[in-house]
Design goal:
The structure is a single chain. The longest helix has 13 residues. The radius of gyration is 18 Å and the shape is globular. The chain has a seven-stranded mixed sheet with strand order 10-9-8-7-11-12-15, sandwiched between helices. Strands 4-3-6-1-2-5 form a six-stranded antiparallel sheet. By secondary structure, the chain is an alpha/beta fold. It folds into two domains: 89 residues, Translation factors (Elongation Factor Tu (Ef-tu), domain 3, Beta Barrel); 130 residues, 3-Layer(aba) Sandwich (Rossmann fold), CATH 3.40.50. Helix content is 20%, strand content 30%. It binds flavin-adenine dinucleotide and FE2/S2 (inorganic) cluster (FES). Flavin-adenine dinucleotide binds next to strand 4, strand 5 and helix 1. This is Anaerobic sulfite reductase subunit B. Its cofactor is [2Fe-2S] cluster; FAD. Keywords: 2Fe-2S, FAD, Flavoprotein, Iron, Iron-sulfur, Metal-binding. It comes from Anaerohalosphaera lusitana.
Protein backbone atom coordinates (compact mmCIF):
# COMPACT_ATOMS: atom_id res chain seq x y z
CA UNK A 1 0.00 0.00 0.00
CA UNK A 2 1.29 3.49 -0.90
CA UNK A 3 2.14 5.83 2.04
CA UNK A 4 0.67 8.97 0.49
CA UNK A 5 -2.60 7.76 -1.05
CA UNK A 6 -5.05 4.88 -0.93
CA UNK A 7 -3.61 3.18 -4.02
CA UNK A 8 -2.66 -0.46 -3.64
CA UNK A 9 0.64 0.31 -5.38
CA UNK A 10 3.48 2.72 -4.52
CA UNK A 11 3.50 5.04 -7.55
CA UNK A 12 7.21 5.79 -7.15
CA UNK A 13 8.48 2.25 -6.75
CA UNK A 14 9.00 0.14 -9.88
CA UNK A 15 7.64 -3.40 -9.67
CA UNK A 16 9.90 -6.14 -10.91
CA UNK A 17 8.73 -7.75 -14.14
CA UNK A 18 10.09 -10.31 -16.62
CA UNK A 19 10.32 -10.26 -20.40
CA UNK A 20 8.33 -13.29 -21.59
CA UNK A 21 8.52 -12.73 -25.35
CA UNK A 22 10.41 -10.36 -27.62
CA UNK A 23 10.32 -9.83 -31.37
CA UNK A 24 11.85 -7.15 -33.53
CA UNK A 25 8.93 -6.27 -35.80
CA UNK A 26 10.85 -4.10 -38.26
CA UNK A 27 14.11 -2.11 -38.20
CA UNK A 28 13.10 0.04 -35.21
CA UNK A 29 10.06 -1.39 -33.38
CA UNK A 30 10.44 -4.09 -30.74
CA UNK A 31 7.46 -6.09 -29.43
CA UNK A 32 7.62 -7.21 -25.79
CA UNK A 33 5.31 -9.38 -23.71
CA UNK A 34 5.97 -8.57 -20.06
CA UNK A 35 4.64 -10.19 -16.91
CA UNK A 36 4.76 -8.72 -13.41
CA UNK A 37 6.75 -11.00 -11.08
CA UNK A 38 3.93 -10.68 -8.51
CA UNK A 39 1.81 -12.77 -10.91
CA UNK A 40 -0.88 -10.06 -10.90
CA UNK A 41 -2.33 -8.56 -14.07
CA UNK A 42 -1.37 -4.92 -14.71
CA UNK A 43 -5.03 -3.84 -14.45
CA UNK A 44 -4.83 -1.15 -17.12
CA UNK A 45 -7.38 0.63 -19.30
CA UNK A 46 -6.87 1.12 -23.07
CA UNK A 47 -4.78 4.25 -23.70
CA UNK A 48 -2.81 4.13 -20.44
CA UNK A 49 0.97 3.89 -20.26
CA UNK A 50 3.65 2.46 -17.99
CA UNK A 51 7.07 3.81 -16.98
CA UNK A 52 9.62 1.16 -17.95
CA UNK A 53 12.96 1.27 -16.13
CA UNK A 54 16.25 -0.39 -16.90
CA UNK A 55 18.64 -0.63 -13.95
CA UNK A 56 21.57 1.76 -14.30
CA UNK A 57 20.18 3.46 -17.43
CA UNK A 58 16.85 5.16 -16.70
CA UNK A 59 13.12 5.14 -17.22
CA UNK A 60 10.71 6.09 -20.01
CA UNK A 61 6.96 6.13 -20.66
CA UNK A 62 5.61 3.48 -23.06
CA UNK A 63 1.95 2.94 -24.05
CA UNK A 64 0.36 -0.39 -23.27
CA UNK A 65 -0.45 -2.01 -26.60
CA UNK A 66 -2.49 -5.02 -25.47
CA UNK A 67 -6.13 -4.95 -24.43
CA UNK A 68 -6.96 -5.42 -20.74
CA UNK A 69 -9.08 -8.36 -21.93
CA UNK A 70 -5.83 -10.20 -22.73
CA UNK A 71 -4.51 -12.03 -19.67
CA UNK A 72 -1.07 -13.40 -18.88
CA UNK A 73 0.98 -10.20 -19.11
CA UNK A 74 0.85 -7.04 -21.18
CA UNK A 75 2.40 -5.97 -24.48
CA UNK A 76 4.55 -2.99 -25.43
CA UNK A 77 5.95 -1.74 -28.72
CA UNK A 78 9.19 0.18 -28.28
CA UNK A 79 10.92 2.29 -30.92
CA UNK A 80 14.67 2.57 -30.52
CA UNK A 81 14.95 6.35 -30.00
CA UNK A 82 17.66 6.96 -27.38
CA UNK A 83 19.41 5.69 -24.29
CA UNK A 84 16.58 3.92 -22.42
CA UNK A 85 14.80 2.56 -25.48
CA UNK A 86 18.16 1.32 -26.85
CA UNK A 87 18.67 -0.60 -23.58
CA UNK A 88 15.11 -1.98 -23.87
CA UNK A 89 15.95 -3.22 -27.38
CA UNK A 90 18.83 -5.25 -25.90
CA UNK A 91 16.52 -7.13 -23.49
CA UNK A 92 16.32 -10.89 -23.90
CA UNK A 93 13.59 -13.31 -22.79
CA UNK A 94 13.96 -13.80 -19.02
CA UNK A 95 15.53 -10.37 -18.40
CA UNK A 96 14.09 -8.13 -15.69
CA UNK A 97 12.66 -4.62 -16.03
CA UNK A 98 11.03 -2.21 -13.59
CA UNK A 99 7.41 -1.20 -14.21
CA UNK A 100 5.50 1.71 -12.65
CA UNK A 101 1.88 2.26 -13.54
CA UNK A 102 -0.49 2.00 -15.31
CA UNK A 103 -0.69 5.79 -15.49
CA UNK A 104 -2.88 8.39 -17.18
CA UNK A 105 -6.61 8.27 -17.72
CA UNK A 106 -6.39 6.61 -21.13
CA UNK A 107 -9.58 6.35 -23.21
CA UNK A 108 -12.81 7.16 -21.39
CA UNK A 109 -14.63 3.97 -22.36
CA UNK A 110 -17.93 5.28 -20.90
CA UNK A 111 -17.88 8.14 -23.47
CA UNK A 112 -17.34 5.66 -26.32
CA UNK A 113 -19.96 3.05 -25.39
CA UNK A 114 -22.73 2.51 -27.97
CA UNK A 115 -20.96 4.89 -30.40
CA UNK A 116 -19.78 4.14 -33.92
CA UNK A 117 -16.01 4.52 -33.68
CA UNK A 118 -13.34 5.48 -36.20
CA UNK A 119 -9.71 5.01 -35.17
CA UNK A 120 -7.18 6.91 -37.27
CA UNK A 121 -3.64 5.73 -36.52
CA UNK A 122 -0.30 6.77 -37.93
CA UNK A 123 2.91 4.76 -37.48
CA UNK A 124 3.66 4.03 -33.82
CA UNK A 125 0.22 5.47 -32.96
CA UNK A 126 -1.04 1.98 -33.74
CA UNK A 127 0.51 0.74 -30.46
CA UNK A 128 -1.86 2.51 -28.00
CA UNK A 129 -4.84 2.31 -30.35
CA UNK A 130 -4.39 -1.46 -30.69
CA UNK A 131 -5.23 -1.76 -27.00
CA UNK A 132 -8.55 0.00 -27.60
CA UNK A 133 -9.26 -1.77 -30.92
CA UNK A 134 -8.81 -5.23 -29.39
CA UNK A 135 -10.85 -4.19 -26.35
CA UNK A 136 -13.71 -3.19 -28.68
CA UNK A 137 -13.37 -6.44 -30.69
CA UNK A 138 -13.62 -8.40 -27.42
CA UNK A 139 -16.70 -6.44 -26.25
CA UNK A 140 -18.64 -5.90 -29.50
CA UNK A 141 -22.06 -5.53 -27.86
CA UNK A 142 -20.86 -2.42 -25.95
CA UNK A 143 -20.01 -0.44 -29.09
CA UNK A 144 -21.47 0.46 -32.51
CA UNK A 145 -19.47 -0.11 -35.68
CA UNK A 146 -15.66 0.00 -35.74
CA UNK A 147 -13.60 1.51 -38.56
CA UNK A 148 -9.80 1.59 -38.44
CA UNK A 149 -7.63 3.67 -40.79
CA UNK A 150 -3.88 3.06 -40.59
CA UNK A 151 -1.07 4.93 -42.30
CA UNK A 152 2.58 3.86 -42.24
CA UNK A 153 5.52 5.72 -43.73
CA UNK A 154 6.81 2.84 -45.86
CA UNK A 155 5.98 -0.84 -46.41
CA UNK A 156 8.95 -2.32 -44.45
CA UNK A 157 7.95 -0.18 -41.43
CA UNK A 158 4.53 -1.92 -41.01
CA UNK A 159 4.22 -3.93 -37.80
CA UNK A 160 1.71 -6.43 -36.33
CA UNK A 161 1.33 -7.57 -39.96
CA UNK A 162 -0.44 -10.86 -39.18
CA UNK A 163 -2.93 -9.09 -36.94
CA UNK A 164 -3.55 -6.42 -39.60
CA UNK A 165 -4.25 -9.18 -42.14
CA UNK A 166 -6.88 -10.64 -39.76
CA UNK A 167 -8.46 -7.21 -39.27
CA UNK A 168 -8.62 -6.79 -43.05
CA UNK A 169 -10.16 -10.24 -43.65
CA UNK A 170 -12.63 -10.29 -40.75
CA UNK A 171 -16.14 -8.86 -40.89
CA UNK A 172 -16.16 -7.31 -37.40
CA UNK A 173 -14.62 -4.02 -38.53
CA UNK A 174 -13.86 -1.93 -41.61
CA UNK A 175 -10.09 -1.76 -41.93
CA UNK A 176 -8.26 0.38 -44.47
CA UNK A 177 -4.54 0.78 -44.70
CA UNK A 178 -2.12 2.92 -46.68
CA UNK A 179 1.63 3.48 -46.95
CA UNK A 180 3.14 6.85 -47.86
CA UNK A 181 5.50 5.49 -50.53
CA UNK A 182 5.12 2.90 -53.28
CA UNK A 183 6.89 -0.43 -52.77
CA UNK A 184 7.22 -3.53 -55.00
CA UNK A 185 5.68 -5.77 -52.32
CA UNK A 186 2.70 -3.47 -51.61
CA UNK A 187 -0.43 -3.57 -53.76
CA UNK A 188 -2.67 -1.55 -51.43
CA UNK A 189 -3.37 2.19 -51.05
CA UNK A 190 -0.49 4.62 -51.43
CA UNK A 191 -0.64 8.06 -49.84
CA UNK A 192 -0.84 9.61 -46.40
CA UNK A 193 -3.51 8.47 -43.93
CA UNK A 194 -5.82 11.41 -44.73
CA UNK A 195 -6.33 9.92 -48.23
CA UNK A 196 -8.32 7.12 -46.55
CA UNK A 197 -10.83 9.47 -44.91
CA UNK A 198 -12.98 10.08 -48.05
CA UNK A 199 -13.17 6.28 -48.51
CA UNK A 200 -15.16 5.98 -45.26
CA UNK A 201 -17.12 9.22 -45.67
CA UNK A 202 -20.44 7.48 -44.96
CA UNK A 203 -19.10 6.18 -41.60
CA UNK A 204 -18.14 9.65 -40.34
CA UNK A 205 -21.64 10.90 -39.52
CA UNK A 206 -22.55 10.32 -35.87
CA UNK A 207 -19.19 8.67 -35.12
CA UNK A 208 -16.56 9.39 -32.51
CA UNK A 209 -13.15 9.73 -34.18
CA UNK A 210 -10.00 8.75 -32.26
CA UNK A 211 -6.71 10.01 -33.66
CA UNK A 212 -3.25 8.80 -32.61
CA UNK A 213 0.00 9.31 -34.46
CA UNK A 214 3.07 11.50 -34.84
CA UNK A 215 2.62 15.24 -34.04
CA UNK A 216 2.71 16.26 -37.73
CA UNK A 217 -0.22 13.95 -38.53
CA UNK A 218 -2.70 15.67 -36.19
CA UNK A 219 -2.70 18.96 -38.05
CA UNK A 220 -3.57 17.31 -41.37
CA UNK A 221 -6.08 14.81 -39.99
CA UNK A 222 -7.89 17.52 -38.02
CA UNK A 223 -7.95 19.75 -41.12
CA UNK A 224 -9.40 16.88 -43.18
CA UNK A 225 -12.05 16.15 -40.52
CA UNK A 226 -13.15 19.83 -40.54
CA UNK A 227 -14.70 19.17 -43.98
CA UNK A 228 -17.15 16.71 -42.43
CA UNK A 229 -18.39 19.02 -39.63
CA UNK A 230 -17.65 16.52 -36.89
CA UNK A 231 -18.25 18.16 -33.50
CA UNK A 232 -14.94 18.71 -31.67
CA UNK A 233 -16.46 16.88 -28.69
CA UNK A 234 -16.50 13.75 -30.88
CA UNK A 235 -12.82 13.92 -31.87
CA UNK A 236 -10.27 12.42 -29.47
CA UNK A 237 -6.50 12.90 -29.73
CA UNK A 238 -3.55 11.35 -27.89
CA UNK A 239 -1.09 13.98 -26.71
CA UNK A 240 2.46 12.78 -26.29
CA UNK A 241 4.47 15.05 -24.05
CA UNK A 242 7.93 14.73 -22.54
CA UNK A 243 7.37 12.95 -19.24
CA UNK A 244 9.54 12.15 -16.26
CA UNK A 245 7.62 11.14 -13.14
CA UNK A 246 4.39 10.07 -14.88
CA UNK A 247 2.37 10.94 -11.76
CA UNK A 248 1.82 14.70 -11.72
CA UNK A 249 4.81 15.70 -9.56
CA UNK A 250 7.62 17.00 -11.81
CA UNK A 251 5.68 19.26 -14.19
CA UNK A 252 7.54 18.07 -17.32
CA UNK A 253 4.36 17.16 -19.18
CA UNK A 254 2.33 20.23 -18.28
CA UNK A 255 0.45 22.29 -20.89
CA UNK A 256 -1.56 25.25 -19.61
CA UNK A 257 -1.84 23.73 -16.16
CA UNK A 258 -2.97 20.37 -17.57
CA UNK A 259 -0.81 17.43 -16.47
CA UNK A 260 -0.89 15.13 -19.49
CA UNK A 261 0.53 12.22 -17.47
CA UNK A 262 -2.48 12.35 -15.16
CA UNK A 263 -5.50 13.58 -17.13
CA UNK A 264 -4.27 12.39 -20.56
CA UNK A 265 -2.79 11.30 -22.79
CA UNK A 266 -6.23 11.11 -24.50
CA UNK A 267 -8.25 14.35 -24.74
CA UNK A 268 -11.34 15.51 -26.55
CA UNK A 269 -10.27 18.00 -29.25
CA UNK A 270 -12.80 20.43 -27.75
CA UNK A 271 -10.77 20.37 -24.50
CA UNK A 272 -7.35 21.08 -25.95
CA UNK A 273 -7.88 22.60 -29.43
CA UNK A 274 -7.57 26.17 -28.11
CA UNK A 275 -4.54 25.45 -25.89
CA UNK A 276 -1.37 26.91 -27.38
CA UNK A 277 1.14 24.20 -28.36
CA UNK A 278 -1.17 21.32 -27.46
CA UNK A 279 -1.31 20.07 -31.05
C1 LIG B 1 2.50 8.79 -22.84
C2 LIG B 1 3.63 8.33 -23.73
C3 LIG B 1 3.54 7.11 -24.37
C4 LIG B 1 4.57 6.68 -25.19
N1 LIG B 1 4.44 5.47 -25.80
C5 LIG B 1 5.46 4.99 -26.53
C6 LIG B 1 5.37 3.68 -27.11
O1 LIG B 1 4.37 2.97 -27.00
N2 LIG B 1 6.43 3.24 -27.81
C7 LIG B 1 7.58 4.01 -27.97
O2 LIG B 1 8.52 3.53 -28.59
N3 LIG B 1 7.67 5.24 -27.46
C8 LIG B 1 6.65 5.74 -26.73
N4 LIG B 1 6.77 6.99 -26.17
C9 LIG B 1 7.99 7.79 -26.44
C10 LIG B 1 9.09 7.31 -25.52
O3 LIG B 1 8.74 7.58 -24.18
C11 LIG B 1 10.38 8.06 -25.87
O4 LIG B 1 10.84 7.63 -27.13
C12 LIG B 1 11.44 7.72 -24.84
O5 LIG B 1 11.14 8.41 -23.63
C13 LIG B 1 12.80 8.11 -25.31
O6 LIG B 1 13.68 7.84 -24.25
P1 LIG B 1 15.19 7.42 -24.51
O7 LIG B 1 15.92 7.52 -23.20
O8 LIG B 1 15.26 6.14 -25.23
O9 LIG B 1 15.65 8.54 -25.49
P2 LIG B 1 16.39 9.91 -25.15
O10 LIG B 1 17.85 9.60 -25.15
O11 LIG B 1 15.78 10.56 -23.97
O12 LIG B 1 15.93 10.73 -26.42
C14 LIG B 1 16.12 10.28 -27.75
C15 LIG B 1 15.43 11.20 -28.70
O13 LIG B 1 14.01 11.11 -28.53
C16 LIG B 1 13.46 12.39 -28.22
N5 LIG B 1 12.39 12.16 -27.24
C17 LIG B 1 12.50 11.73 -25.98
N6 LIG B 1 11.28 11.64 -25.40
C18 LIG B 1 10.37 12.02 -26.34
C19 LIG B 1 8.96 12.15 -26.36
N7 LIG B 1 8.18 11.90 -25.31
N8 LIG B 1 8.40 12.58 -27.51
C20 LIG B 1 9.13 12.86 -28.59
N9 LIG B 1 10.48 12.76 -28.63
C21 LIG B 1 11.09 12.34 -27.52
C22 LIG B 1 14.64 13.18 -27.66
O14 LIG B 1 14.50 14.56 -27.89
C23 LIG B 1 15.79 12.64 -28.49
O15 LIG B 1 15.84 13.25 -29.75
C24 LIG B 1 5.74 7.47 -25.37
C25 LIG B 1 5.84 8.71 -24.72
C26 LIG B 1 4.80 9.14 -23.92
C27 LIG B 1 4.92 10.46 -23.22
S1 LIG C 1 5.46 13.65 -16.07
FE1 LIG C 1 5.86 14.57 -14.15
S2 LIG C 1 4.14 15.84 -13.91
FE2 LIG C 1 3.63 14.72 -15.67
Amino acid sequence: MCDCCSSKKDIYLPELATVKKRKLMNGTELYLLIQLDSGEELGHKPGQFVEVSIAGIGECPISISSSPTQKGGFELVVRNAGSVTKAIHKLKVGDKVGIRGPFGEGYHIDQLKNRNLICICGGLGLAPQRSLINYILDNPSDFGTLTVLLGTKCYPQRFFREELAKWAEGDDMTFKETVDEEHDCWTGNVGVVTTLIPKVESHLKDSAVLVCGPPVMYKFVLMALEEYDIPHDDIYVNLERRMKCGVGKCGHCQINGEYVCQSGPVYRYSEIGAMPEAI
